[in-house]
Design goal:
By secondary structure, this protein is an alpha+beta fold. It has helices spanning 10-19, 35-38, 51-60, 71-75, 78-83, 98-105, 107-116, 132-141, 165-177, 245-265, 299-302, 310-318, 394-405; strands spanning 3-7, 28-32, 42-43, 65-68, 92-96, 124-128, 146-150, 159-162, 187-191, 197-205, 210-212, 217-218, 221-223, 227-230, 235-238, 270-281, 284-291, 333-341, 353-354, 364-367, 370-373, 376-379, 383-391, 413-414. The strands form five sheets. Strands 1, 2, 3, 4, 5, 10, 11, 16 and 17 form a nine-stranded mixed beta sheet that branches. Helix 6 (98-105) crosses helix 7 (107-116) and helix 8 packs antiparallel against helix 9. The model has no long low-confidence stretch (mean pLDDT 96). The protein binds adenosine monophosphate (AMP) and glycine.
């Protein structure tokens, strides 16, 4: 069949890398894609939320399956757009419906869902401009640090963790009355701070059954020791060593099963990934957030460990036949290191020529912010590429990635040298 992936990051290059290996894939398209997907698929320069252009492409190229990478088209209802269109309704869309995507699109909705289905998470209350004073009073009942979350999508910037009460009150006011994060902060969730170590669990569901994919941990800050500004993610490892069988059992019983049951009971159409951000407090898992897609760079360590044919898994998801599916997971660990443009996550230059990719041995390079310029691969984003390796443990995998990174160059290249430092 012909397949289309929406997106242009390392996540989408990893999907593409796996999908072209499937015997069920005839032609693969990526919109808009990057220099990495260009070498294995056909890139089409269409925006991920340009539904009319996507429709035209799907009809022109006889596309049977659409795999949605990022959250924006899901939150804007790409799944529902396909189901409501007579010419598109039989196309298999991998991703949740708009109602399902609200689990990421609205933090308040996600918290209500968790409360409704008894899923452990931080205590919270939600406020709007009208209830600003009540929000300030609520902050007074909490102890530092204070966690403020813009309700809507804010490109990963909408969460503030503040040490002092006066600052927290000011920021709350800025979010609610000055729309610090635009419409995304018309509602703000204030929640209890949870102190622990984070990890992520990924679930593939058809809305009734599920398979739990390998765990991963990403490193979000730009600086070593997890200091400095937040980024989209600077590296990741899978599996997470502290997520042993006993802890995974708690995650499955207390979080994954109730989440999928909740989706089923609420009759939400959901044929895609759930990315559950977790925090381990003492010996217990709590949900920090839901995302309705795979993570980036977590995908770059999770998918390379899955031996199943990904298109077969997606077909089962689409047909609601995921029940009894067994995942075949590589026992090797995976690690990835993200190479970024100097200056990122603040301003940075683009158009830098990347060299050395042909010399990489024993790692896979997943492109993110790259484009093709004549015969060259040039940078076109902050996160440029992720260098993934597999080995007996994540430390050995990292050694291979770091060894290969020595061979890759572009002007002002930056990366973290301490991925996995806390494990
Ligand atoms: P989110 O966008 O909800 O994932 O939040 C971004 C980051 O803020 C998370 O990855 C955590 O590191 C942190 N965070 C969010 N909520 C909490 C909380 N309740 N307690 C402690 N840290 C949190
Ligand atoms: N790496 C975090 C995310 O994809 O949201």
């Amino acid at each position: 069949m012909n397949i289309l992936i929406l997106g242009n990051g390392g996540r989408e290059h990893t999907f593409a890398h796996k999908i072209v290996q499937s015997k069920h894939c005839d032609t693969l398209f990526v919109a808009p894609g990057n220099a990495g997907t260009h070498t294995i698929a056909t890139n089409v320069n269409i925006g991920v939320t340009d539904f009319d252009a996507i429709k035209k492409l799907v009809l022109d190229e006889d596309i049977d399956m659409v795999v949605v990478g990022p959250e924006a088209p899901l939150v804007e209802g790409v799944f529902d757009f396909f189901k409501a269109d007579g010419a598109l309704k039989n196309v298999k869309v991998i991703g949740p419906s708009k109602r399902g995507a609200l689990l990421e699109g609205s933090k308040e909705r996600a918290k209500e869902f968790m409360a409704m289905h008894n899923i452990p998470t931080a205590a919270y209350e939600a406020f709007t401009a009208k209830s600003l004073e009540a929000g300030k009073k609520f902050l007074e009942t909490l102890t530092a640090p204070y966690v403020l979350k813009a309700d809507g999508l804010a490109a990963g910037k909408g969460v503030l963790i503040l040490d002092d009460l006066a600052t927290a009150k000011n920021e709350l006011e800025d979010m609610l009355t000055n729309q610090k994060f635009g419409a995304a902060s018309e509602t703000v969730v204030i929640e209890e701070f949870l102190d622990g170590i984070e990890l992520s669990v990924f679930v593939l569901t058809d809305g009734k059954s599920h398979v739990t994919l390998p765990t991963a941990k990403d490193y979000k800050r730009i600086g070593e020791g997890d200091k400095g500004l937040n980024t989209g993610g600077m590296g990741a490892v899978s599996p997470v060593p502290f997520a042993d069988a006993e802890f995974m059992k708690k995650i499955e019983e207390r979080i994954v099963i109730p989440t999928v049951d909740g989706i089923r009971k609420e009759e939400i159409e959901y044929k895609g990934f759930i990315f559950i951000g977790l925090i381990k407090v003492g010996d217990d898992p709590y949900v920090i957030e839901y995302n309705v897609r795979m993570g980036d760079p977590e995908t770059e360590v999770v998918l390379p460990r899955i031996k199943n044919d990904l298109v077969e898994l997606f077909e089962k998801v689409s047909a609601e036949k995921l029940e009894d599916t067994q995942l075949d997971v590589d026992t090797q660990a995976a690690a990835t290191v993200m190479l970024v443009s100097g200056g990122y996550p603040e301003s940075y230059e683009k158009g830098k020529v990347v060299t050395g990719l042909g010399e990489v041995r024993g790692s896979t390079v997943f492109h993110a912010g790259t484009t093709v310029d004549g015969d060259n691969v040039v940078t076109s984003g902050g996160r440029v590429m992720a260098v993934t390796s597999l080995a007996d443990d994540f430390k050995k995998a990292l050694e291979t990635s770091y060894g290969n990174i020595e061979k890759i160059t572009f002007d002002k290249m930056n990366y973290r040298k301490d991925i996995g430092f806390d494990l």
